[in-house]
Amino acid sequence: TPFETILVERHGPVTLFTLNRPQALNALSSHVLADLTQAFAAFEADPAQLCAVITGSGDKAFAAGADIKEMAEKPAADFFAEDFFAGWTRDLVKATRKPWIAAVNGFALGGGCELAMMADFIIASDNACFGQPEIRLGIAPGMGGSQRLTRAVGKAKAMEMCLTGRMMDAAEAERSGLVSRVVPQAELLAEALKTAQAIAAMPPLGTIAVKELVNLAFETTLDQGIVAERRTFQVLCATQDKAEGMAAFVEKRAGVWKGK
Ligand code: HXC
């Protein structure tokens, strides 16, 4: 099914989602969330799809934020009544066990920065810039920015950025641990897809387990996290892919994964 606000392409086992409202710098309207929710659910449900990339159309923006024009019109009580923005974390972050990468190709501001941080990691183009400018609009981050940015770059930078709206360029974002890598803009999509293909070539239960464990590090104590890791390791030892992986190593050949 074609969507109005996003493009969805399959590259073998990798799904590419492209935010597709370039005339609004890919601003994240409720319509975008509805489209992404449906597209992510299809990705998650398809056993042939193993990793995803999300990027923005055009060469200027990943996403310049939540849609300011939509929010400007909305009656105040509706934000609370609809639990506005709850769907982003509920339907994309919590409902998706498979890994997905944000390929940030320009502005990632407000909700755009927050969406990028919902991904399992970010690869940025050299012209990318990140910011939480909500303060300038009389609001505050609402899709996780105050929490995920603080965890990603620490208190000093997160506090300064959220209080002043100052943007971070790609080099500072890499230095600060917000992004895993910076690549030239012309190579961004190819690099992100190549990385996603590399993940998709791994034993699929392993990638789901790794994602869960790394995310758990943000939610739990070290002791409980270490126990969860050890149990997960033990469970993976019962899989066919573990037997195959170790046999393939001994026989000096590539493994063939079943996701079982
Ligand atoms: C709706 C947006 C938009 C947005 C840009 N546009 N950002 N529309 N929502 N977040 C639209 C513009 O209105 C304009 O449409 C078109 O995209 C091009 O943008 P320009 O401003 O003309 O481009 P430029 O001069 O290059 O400036 C780029 C920019 C600027 C610096 C990124 O667009 C900007 O500051 N955008 C807003 C960034 C922001 O404040 N984001 C946070 C949003 S709040 P027209 O029709 O005029 O051509 C948020 C809330 C989270 O995310 C939580 C709240 C509770």
UniProtKB/TrEMBL annotation:
Key words, A-Z: Lyase
Keyword field contains Lyase: yes
Similarity field: Belongs to the enoyl-CoA hydratase/isomerase family.
SUPFAM superfamilies associated with the record: ClpP/crotonase (SSF52096)
Organism listed in the record: Novosphingobium pituita
CDD domains, per the entry: crotonase-like
Domain of life: Bacteria
Pfam families reported in the protein's UniProt record: ECH_1
Descriptive protein name: Enoyl-CoA hydratase
InterPro entries attached to this UniProt entry: ClpP/crotonase-like_dom_sf, Enoyl-CoA_hyd/isom_CS, Enoyl-CoA_hydra/iso, Enoyl-CoA_hydra_C
